[in-house]
């Protein structure tokens, strides 16, 4: 499942980055659609080409999950200790989910920026990236050229995507866990 997702992310990034020549920014691929993108990448660079940039997805998921879950647990504990909400109130996981989503987005956004840049960079005939050699190289070059803020491009959009997902997932997980343990 994870491997399929990595291929889909690369194709999605190629297709989303395409635009009319008058407004094009960055490297432009000329794919005619999803199947054309898959076919073209495979024909030019083989199976390895389909996975290019996927190494940045692993640290993103690891860091994101760790921050998301630990912030959720800690926030729930703090709301209990400070008695900010009624005990066993549905407001507790809701507040914890909101706080967790903010921390998760702060942790994940630099990895999303790196991942997008690795997926979208042009490659040579051997399939090697022309701008970055890997995750650390991309992080370093982005920091050097754009500063710390360069790693947080698109953070608002990331929050609008990840925020509701985090809040709802953790809220429903917590509520379902209560129902399960009350049986």
Features:
single chain; about 180 residues; mainly alpha; elongated
Structural features, described:
The protein has helices at about 1-15, 35-50, 55-80, 90-120, 135-145, 155-180. With about 180 residues, the protein is mainly α. The protein is built from six helices and no strands. Helices cover about 70% and strands about 0% of the residues. The relative contact order is 0.12.
Outline of the structure:
This protein has 183 residues and is an all-alpha fold. It contains 6 helices and no strands.
- Percentage beta strand: under 5%
Distance between the first and last residues' Cα:
33 Å
User: Averaged pLDDT, please?
Assistant: 83
Shape: elongated
Number of strands: 0
Q: How much helix is in the residues?
A: 55-70%
Supply the helix-strand structural class: mainly alpha
Largest sheet: none
Low-confidence stretches: none
List the helices and strands and how they pair.
Layout: H1 2-17, H2 34-51, H3 57-81, H4 91-120, H5 135-146, H6 155-181
Helix pairs in contact: 1-2, 3-4, 4-5, 4-6
């Amino acid at each position: 499942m994870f491997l399929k997702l990595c291929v889909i992310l690369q194709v999605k990034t190629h297709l989303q980055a395409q635009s009319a020549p008058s407004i094009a920014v960055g490297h432009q691929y000329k794919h005619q659609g999803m199947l054309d993108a898959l076919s073209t990448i495979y024909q030019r660079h083989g199976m390895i080409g389909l996975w290019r940039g996927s190494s940045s997805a692993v640290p993103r998921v690891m860091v994101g999950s760790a921050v998301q879950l630990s912030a959720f647990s800690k926030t729930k504990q703090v709301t209990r200790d400070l008695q900010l909400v009624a005990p066993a109130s549905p407001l507790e996981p809701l507040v914890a989910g909101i706080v967790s989503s903010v921390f998760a987005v702060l942790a994940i956004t630099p990895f999303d920026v790196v991942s997008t840049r690795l997926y979208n960079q042009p490659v040579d005939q051997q399939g090697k990236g022309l701008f970055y050699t890997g995750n650390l190289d991309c992080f370093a070059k982005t920091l050097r050229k754009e500063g710390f803020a360069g790693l947080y491009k698109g953070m608002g959009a990331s929050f609008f995507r990840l925020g509701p997902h985090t809040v709802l997932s953790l809220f429903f997980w917590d509520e379902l866990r209560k129902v399960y343990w009350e049986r």
